[in-house]
Structures are given as C-alpha cells and as structure tokens.
Design brief:
Elements (H helix, E strand, L loop, with lengths): L1 H13 L7 E3 L2 H10 L7 E2 L14 H9 L2 E4 L9 H4 L5 E3 L7 E3 L7 E4 L27 H18 L4 H29 L4 E5 L3 H6 L6 E4 L8 H12 L5 E4 L6 H7 L5 E4 L13 H14 L3
Parallel strand pairs: 1-2, 1-3, 3-4, 7-8, 7-9, 9-10
Antiparallel strand pairs: 5-6
Helix pairs in contact: 2-5, 5-6, 6-10
Protein name: High-affinity zinc uptake system protein ZnuA
Function: Part of the ATP-binding cassette (ABC) transport system ZnuABC involved in zinc import. Binds zinc with high affinity and specificity and delivers it to the membrane permease for translocation into the cytoplasm.
GO molecular function: metal ion binding
Length: 303
C-alpha cells in the first residue's frame, strides 16, 4: 500500500503542468507566441496559409478552436473585424491594439506615432468592422518596437494564467528581446541602402517597418487589398515609373494582381514580392527574427 502511494506521488510530480494553449489569428503573431511559449506549449494559428485577415470568413471548426483556446491573441477590430463577434464574452482574449504602451500610428495624424494602446477595453469591441485606414494602422507585427510590446503582453498574460510556467515565459521573453535586438542591428545597413531607392508597395501595410528604418515608399496601389486601385492612382504610378522616380514595385504573394504588371510594363521598374505575413516561414521560437530577415532581404532586392 505504501509503495502504491509512493508511486502515485512520484507520478503526480512527474506529470507536466497543463499549459495554457495559445491561438493567434495570423502567422506573425504565432511567430512571437512560439518564442514566448518555447518549451511550454506550441501556439496554433487560426488563418490558413494564403488567407488574408482583410476578408476572412470563419468556419464552424474555427469557432470551435476559438472557444477551446486558453488564450486568443488578435490585433484588434481594426484588422480582424470577423473576430469581434466570436470573442464576445470569452474570458481570455489579448487585444493587441488595446495593450498599454503599444506605440500606434494613426492615419488621421500623419505626423507620426500619435497615441498608445489603452489597457481599459480588453476586447476592443468598439463597433469598427473591417479594415480601416482612417484610424489606427493595424499592421503592428511589422514594427520591431511593436513586436517587443506584443512579446511582453504575451508573457504577462500567460504568466497570469499559468503561474507554474511563469519563470519559463520570463526567460523566453529575455531571449526573444535579445534575438530581436541582434536582428534589428544586423539588418539596419541593408535598410539604409534601400531608403535611398524609390519604390511603390501594393497596399499600405509597411508603415511601422518603414518608419523604424527611416524608409518611405513613393505610394501604394490601394489602401486595403479588398479595395481596387483607382484609375487615377494607376495613372499617377505609371507616370512616376516612367519618370524614374521609383525603380521597384512590391507585390504580395496573396495579392499580386495583373494590374501591377501592366502598370510596370516597359517602364524598367522591377516587380518584386514582399510577404507581410511570412507565409513560407515555419512557426517556431526563432521564426520572428527569420521573418524580419526575409522582409529585409525582399526590400534589399530593390537597388
């Protein structure tokens, strides 16, 4: 009897602590989550490869995954409007545009970083649907400074929910920040060279990255991928390319319309790809620095 009790006690000690399961809406958030949960759990990503948060429709299996997750991480209603309703009433949701200290850029105030995330509205259900460019720029995963705040918010949320693994989350956060700083420094010279080149982007998504590295596009085809570029915009871009004011146009894997090729034709401008969500990168603890390097290499092709 005593041996049985001892075996039971040993088994209980050796059983792993049930960790909080993390579900992120998009892959880049999964990259950061994987770094923070390394050695504890593996995050799941809701949107499949090739899907865009701009116009995604949830399936019944997606709704189940959202309800079963220990922590759901999303940018906010400014990007994933389709998530607002399913998240209503869920206890553990991390809305990143509402995180205190998040440096956010407001399109209404083009002067720069205009306000910070607000801790008071955890779910951020403010009635905005879809993807708006009149307010906050939601592409926060593309800014190294914003990525640091995302990682901190994840570590804090997970530690509060899963205190048994708090030391691991904190250690992982330190590792993530170190690797991020190293990568940031390594790619800065690449980006300095690109900043002197003129280029257009397909849609207005890279502001956080560009401001961080002192870069600036000459313009964009469309504010948001679900909006078709206007005829006037296409004429203006064509003229700029013919006058050699830009040498490259960046399309995107999930949105590379023929309109880009036709506008660039016979201008000498190169059509290149920028992958804003890291489609080809595998989710893992080192994925975010890999994502940064891939983005830097893509930009650097414009020379």
């Amino acid at each position: 009897m005593r041996i049985l009790a001892l075996l039971t006690a040993l088994l209980m000690v050796s059983l792993p602590v049930r960790a909080t399961t993390v579900l992120t809406t998009i892959k880049p958030l999964g990259f950061i989550a994987a770094a923070i949960t390394d050695g504890v759990s593996e995050p799941q990503v809701l949107l499949p490869t090739g899907a865009s948060p701009h116009d995604f429709s949830l399936r019944p299996s997606d709704i189940r995954a959202i309800k079963q997750a220990g922590l759901v991480v999303w940018v906010g209603p400014e990007l994933e409007g389709f998530m607002s309703k399913p998240l209503t009433g869920l206890p553990h949701v991390l809305t990143l545009t509402r995180v205190k200290g998040m440096p956010l850029f407001d399109y209404a105030n083009q002067a720069g970083e205009s306000h910070e995330g607000d801790a008071h509205d955890e779910h951020g259900h403010d009635g905005h649907e879809g993807h708006h460019h009149e307010g906050v720029d939601p592409h926060i995963w593309l800014g190294p400074d914003q990525a640091r705040v995302i990682a901190q918010a994840l570590a804090d949320s997970l530690s509060a929910q899963d205190p048994a693994n708090e030391p691991r989350y904190k250690a992982n956060l330190l590792t993530f920040n170190r690797k991020l700083a190293e990568k940031e420094q390594a790619i800065a010279p690449q980006m300095k060279a690109v900043s002197q080149q003129g280029y257009f982007v397909f849609h207005e998504a890279y502001g956080y990255w560009e401001r961080h590295y002192g870069m600036s596009s000459r313009g964009h085809f469309t504010v948001s991928p679900e909006r078709r570029p206007g005829a006037r915009t296409l004429v203006d871009i064509r003229h700029a390319l013919e006058e050699k004011k830009a040498s490259c146009i960046f399309a995107e894997p999930q949105f590379s319309p023929a309109v880009i090729e036709s506008v660039a034709r016979n201008t000498g401008a190169k059509v290149l790809l920028l992958d804003e969500v890291g489609e080809e990168i595998k989710v893992g603890p080192d994925a975010y620095p890999q994502f940064m390097q891939q983005l830097a290499d893509s930009f650097a092709q414009c020379r």
